[in-house]
Amino acid sequence: MIDQSIELMRSGRIAEAEQCLRLCLARSPDSVDALHYLGLLCHQSGRIEEAVALIGKAVERSPDTAFLHANFAEALRLWGDMDAALRHARDAVRLEPSHPNFQFNLAKVLEGSGRFGDALDAAQRALALRPDWVEALSLGASLCFALDRLDQALDFVKRACALRPDDHLLFITLMRYRAWVCDWCGRNQDAARVEAMLEHWVAHPDDEAFAGINPFVAHEYGLPRQIRNDVTQAYCERVLKAAGAPLEPRRAPPRAARARLRLGYVSADFHGHPTMHLMRSFFALHDRARFEVFAYSIGADDGSEYRREAVRSVDRFIDVRAEPAPVSAGRIRRDGIDILIDLKGFTHEARPEIFALRPAPLQVAWLGYPGSTGRGLNDYAIVDRVVAPPELAGDYGEKLVWMPNSYQVNDYRQPVAEERPGRAALGLPATGFVYACFNKVYKIEPPVFGAWMRILARVPGSVLWLYAGKSGARTNLARAAAAAGIDPARLVFGETLPKPQHLARLARADLFLDTFTVNAHTSAADALWAGVPVLTCPGDTFAARVGASLVAAAGLPQLACPSMADYENAAVRLAHDPAELRAMRRTLAARERLPLFDTPRFVRDLESAFDTMWQRYLAGEPPTEFAVGVEPHS
Q1: pLDDT tens, 26-36?
Q2: Which terminus, N or C, of the chain has the lesser number of Cβ atoms within 10 Å?
Q3: How far is Cα 512 from Cα 52, in angstroms, rounded to an integer?
């Protein structure tokens, strides 16, 4: 009967296979094979809790069988019990250390536990046993990337692509890793290939070959507007379909029944992350007479002060990282959250499937993702009229809520180290104008780098101060500078520093130069907080307009240039006009009076937005676009 069940499973007759296995268990409740295969069937069907129970019973009855421990570990990993998963993954390796699958499973569990170094060791053991295993190479690449070993990550993914050259996700990963080391060879041809791939995906949205591709790739490579919008919606619909039926709508209690509106913030970044750098003082400023604040953490606890600040600044902090989406969604619904705020969108470690299940009456996208999440996940998106002008509202599946200043919150109490290092200590020359860009290097593209080199050529003695880690990006950027006729010694590379020390050193820059396709976000706010003007050139997407939003809210809208030529000319002019630059620095020196850094005012404006949304909901009116402080139209 077990053999018959296996054949039924292989032929896709899942219901019949399950019926057969349950009949077998009814006759032989201790059958290890029946328990195991029924558990695998439940696992494949997404019934992870049932799979854990069944395979766990099989392990109890046959504790010396390695593959049972391995499969049990995988079910536990998906269920979220990482400690138990790790025990059983290690048991499988102990019983059969030369089996590559068991080493690979151990690597996946260690990755899920945040132990990236140990996970990489296990992945490399799997590859030593099976060198041409694409999945293990891909895992090794992502682990090296997480460990900031970018050159090694690129090597892993190149090997994987050589073995599977038609894999779309691997190819896009290769492009991204090459961007992280500023390897621009063939970039235009690669972007054209990505565009063709995404067009095919939009035409065939159910094609599993595109599973796992993030729609933001269309923004990173400046692809046409229609492709960006179509890919976003295709990804959104994939998430909605995978999540299944949403939860039953919760009837909102009369406002009088509960004095405070319940807000739930969902993020993987309640730790030392740029999002928390911006939000550190935000949560504590909510009016607790009117709002009750919940935080749902889907990311790691790094033990940092940012994490501790988040925990103590909200009314309830709930770590749901280990929970499957339906469990987290059910918890949010039981908590009675009125407005659920998505701080991740489609960025790393996001859990959009929670929002697909609709656990709250209203759902809002804000801050963490510079673009639309499509139609169906969120009702509203918090923006401003610079990042999302009304004429671009058609690019969003959400209804837009325009904040009166920038959409981006900032920490108005952000500390700056008292010790201000001198230029020599930072590797900067004793004299000469210092341009800086502390954006992540993947945002540096040939057009903007070409503009920077032309600027350096027009400003003798100037240098460009960049943050490029210790990867091959330094070598590649130096080579690109030399090819443009600029001495590579005029590129100065900064190291990673704690945030207060980084802000202190930033003050040594004269002018921050923004990137184009994906602007500086937190790094631009850091520069402005440190008193350094930010020169930017807005494009036609949210990600390409953040810099313009920030300088406008910092009282310096003239720093948003209408064209690349204007950007270059302004960068040169400011280097030769110290009086104009000093005037800008005086504006930034009074930062407590600037809307960008007025966190209490920002919180009041956001609360006003939440009130308006909720009043419309209570009145039975659908979500609609509106500007904070302006009566929304029906």
Answers
A1: 888 888 888 88
A2: C
A3: 53
